[in-house]
Description:
Blueprint: E1 2-4, H1 16-19, E2 27-29, H2 30-43, E3 49-55, E4 58-64, E5 69-70, E6 75-78, H3 84-87, E7 90-97, H4 106-114, E8 119-123, E9 131-134, E10 140-141, E11 144-146
Parallel strand pairs: 1-6, 2-4, 2-11, 7-8
Antiparallel strand pairs: 3-4, 3-7, 5-6, 8-9, 9-10
Amino acid sequence: MKFFKRDKQKTSPKTQKDAIPKRRVWGINTETLQLILEVSKETYPNEFVATLIAKKGVIEEINLLPGTLSGNTTATIRTHMQPPDITLSVVGIVHSHPSGDFRPSGADLFFFSKFGNTHIIVGTPYDINSWQAYDSSGQPIEIKIVD
Ligand SMILES: [Zn+2]
């Protein structure tokens, strides 16, 4: 996953970190997790990237990033293409690893440290057990599946 900085001429006074409030995420909605796994399957063998949107600490929605470029091993996020109204409740990023290894890569760790505080990586075979959540330093975190 590569990360492109905002175009300098379009930079708003707020930095990326200021735009994303620190929220403690403790859960993910069952339907949202199923949607993530379905989209991962549909996108295979390419990688997919979406923002995670939480309400009251529970991830309830994802938004596929319009600037995502999919390839076999890379996905690029153009953060300036993200609608600003969505940013408010975005807590992090979910992306898939078609390799099946859902540990964060070096590039993922760099990205995690720059954007949000809750990230999910899903790996093949994209079933209910093939995902893991991470904090901004890349440490695995527990997230409950809630109805
Ligand atoms: Zn990755």
